[in-house]
Amino acid sequence: MAAAKNELTIPGSGRGLLDLYSNWFLLKLLVRKEIKVRYRGSVLGLLWSYVKPLMQFMIYFVALGIFLNLQKATPNYAIYLFSGIVLVNFFTETLGNSTRSIVDNRDLIRKIYLPRELFPVATVLVSAAHFLPQVVILLGAALLVGWAPSALQLLAAVAAFIVVAILAMGLGLLFGAVNVYFRDSENIVDMILMVVTWASPVLYLWTMARDALGQWFFLYQANPMTVAVEIFHWAFWYPTLDGGQTAMVELPPNLLTLWLPVSLLVSLGVLFLGQYVFRRLAVHFAQEL
């Protein structure tokens, strides 16, 4: 009887994100733990997923829609505003929490070995759970004003969400790993989170950025968040407009044929970079923590 061959492996090594499939049960436990810990001792609990975006929407709508009168130039400005906010909130929550995910779980990481990617990926899934109630509110508001999307628009919205999830995961892996060695990485992420709402057409029309940037507009358009927000506007806001209003609105050219594939490639590139840096640094997480 031939002796079994034992393969020696380097302790702490793994296949990166590919290990998630074989550790799906652990991932579910981490997601459940994150949700319980986040709302422990909270009166409203998961209802904060509704309250916080609604409060954010009201502040922007009053300040920009009413005080600056942007609602006059943008029909159904409330739908336009909220459809961008829900997507940006998903990105900011994912990136902020995944940046802290390794440091916040230092006790668990120092005691046992498990794929380190589980922690930032768990924050993506938790943020997605918070994203769903916000989409429910968006759908309800859109239906009240006559929302009638096409199948292509719905598929495009799903694709836009996937692009943002990939981008947030890539940046989360990158900054989550670097934050173990340089804790001021959180300050860099905080600055990114402050800029992201204004760096995409969430509060204003994309044509304003085009007119202001001129020949440099392609850099603005190459931002995956810009493309994703524009697609969400096209899927949730544009179908609420009547014939006269749609004639007043200018849609971004080549949104699905050019810029969606470009944004997907950029997001995948960020994910590849984030995974590469994460794997290089993850070997010494336990010692550094």
Question: Layout of SSEs?
Answer:
Blueprint: H1 19-22, H2 24-38, H3 48-67, H4 70-73, H5 77-104, H6 106-111, H7 118-144, H8 151-181, H9 185-196, H10 206-213, H11 217-221, H12 224-237, H13 243-248, H14 255-282, H15 285-288
Helix pairs in contact: 2-7, 3-5, 5-7, 5-8, 5-9, 5-12, 8-12, 8-14, 12-14
Membrane topology: Multi-pass membrane protein
Family: Belongs to the ABC-2 integral membrane protein family.
Domain ABC transmembrane type-2: 44-281
Folded structure, characterized:
The protein is mainly alpha-helical and 289 residues long. The protein is built from 15 helices and no strands. It has one domain. Helix 2 (24-38) crosses helix 7 (118-144) and helix 5 packs across helix 12 (224-237). The longest helix is centred in the middle third of the chain and has 31 residues, at 151-181. Keywords: Antibiotic resistance, Cell inner membrane, Cell membrane, Membrane, Transmembrane, Transmembrane helix, Transport.
Kindly list the characteristics that best describe this protein.
disordered N terminus; 289 residues; mainly alpha
Structural domain count: 1
Q: N- to C-terminal separation?
A: 46 Å
Order of helices and strands: HHHHHHHHHHHHHHH
Shape: globular
Helix count, per DSSP?
A: 15
Helicity range: over 70%
Query: Beta-sheet strand percentage?
Result: under 5%
Which structural class do the helices and strands define? mainly alpha
Mean pLDDT: 85
- Biggest β-sheet strands, sense, barrel: none
